[in-house]
Specification:
single chain; alpha/beta; Arc Repressor Mutant, subunit A; Rossmann fold; 2 domains; nine-stranded mixed β-sheet; 14 helices; 9 strands; globular; DNA binding; DNA-binding
Length: 313
């Protein structure tokens, strides 16, 4: 017979998986190695005990209220919302356009901007390619990570930098090094090179960083097994920014092996970080990201913003 403390902890764990992570009862049963009927019993018990409360909201939350709620709840200074379209792909195009216009528009002329990776940043590059090339050439653009072997364009950081440079007139700085290395020794070797030194100077003095928010698990998985072991499962990772994974409370999960080439958390926190969020990202992944203290500005669909604003725990 389990203790009362463990019984309550199990109710909380099952409730989080079901209500916050949208896991089915079957998936929860498999993950926790219990029967599906027992999952149902635990969920009902959690309601009866008051651990889970369900409130039906009959009031319509306005776009202004959503933005205000996100800014006040998570300490961010700007929220840019894109209108939802007929499907995720069309909505993501709107998000990418809004993200590009905000990050690379006239108000940001001349800034030194670091660029992360992700499918939505790839769509920002797609949008950029439809635009004319500028006459003036000011500022700089550079990657925030090394490269990875991926079929997804949004993870080819040097290609993203090339496109954004071409379409904004910024000076490009490239990083021809792998993001994921076999050992810490390899990483330290790369950090001793002149090429890395030049990029690190950009990271130290960048005026803005553009990143995406990803779910966990996600594609590509960035070699999580070799770098993190079982830590991401055990510590309940919910999402990723660059190659940094975090839990639902925004705590960055430390890797078993520190061998990833990317801008540091300290460097990100000392600059202005814009997070551009695909419409496929789960609300709990967005919430965890906002709780890291890294993000200053958020570009997101109106629908997903509403879901995040209405979640309170």
């Amino acid at each position: 017979m389990i203790s009362e403390e463990k019984r309550v902890q199990r109710m909380i764990e099952v409730s989080r998986l079901y209500y916050e992570e949208n896991c089915s009862q079957k998936v929860i049963a498999e993950r926790l190695h219990i029967s599906r009927p027992l999952v149902s019993v635990i969920l009902n018990e959690a309601k009866a005990c008051g651990i889970v409360t369900i409130t039906i909201k009959d009031a319509v939350i306005t776009a202004e209220q959503v933005i205000d709620k996100l800014k006040k709840s998570y300490g961010i200074d700007t929220v840019i919302t894109a209108q939802d379209d007929a499907n995720d792909d069309l909505t993501n195009r709107r998000i990418a356009e809004a993200g590009y216009n905000y990050c690379f528009g006239r108000s940001n002329d001349g800034k030194r901007i670091g660029v992360g990776w992700g499918s939505i940043i790839g769509k920002m590059a797609d949008h950029a390619e439809t635009l004319e090339e500028p006459r003036e050439k000011r500022g700089a653009v550079f990657p925030l990570t090394g490269g990875v072997n991926s079929v997804t364009r949004g993870y080819h950081t040097n290609e993203l930098v090339r496109i954004f440079s071409l379409k904004t007139g910024r000076q490009p700085y490239f990083l021809y090094m792998p993001a994921l290395n076999e050992t810490p020794t390899e990483l330290e070797y790369l950090k001793q090179t002149e090429q890395f030194s030049a990029i690190e100077d950009e990271w130290e003095y960048m005026e803005q960083a553009v990143v995406s928010i990803s779910n966990f698990p996600s594609y590509p998985d960035l070699g999580v097994r070799s770098i993190y072991g079982n830590a991401l499962i055990e510590k309940k990772a919910v999402g990723r920014i660059l190659a940094y994974y975090y839990d639902s409370y925004g705590k960055i999960i430390s890797p078993v092996t520190e061998s990833t080439l990317q801008a540091s958390i300290k460097q990100l926190r000392q600059t202005d970080v814009v997070a551009v969020c695909s419409n496929q990202v789960k609300p709990q992944s967005v919430i965890g990201a906002l709780r890291t203290g890294i993000i200053d500005k958020l570009v997101i669909s109106q629908g997903l913003a509403e879901k995040v604003a209405l979640v309170t725990y």
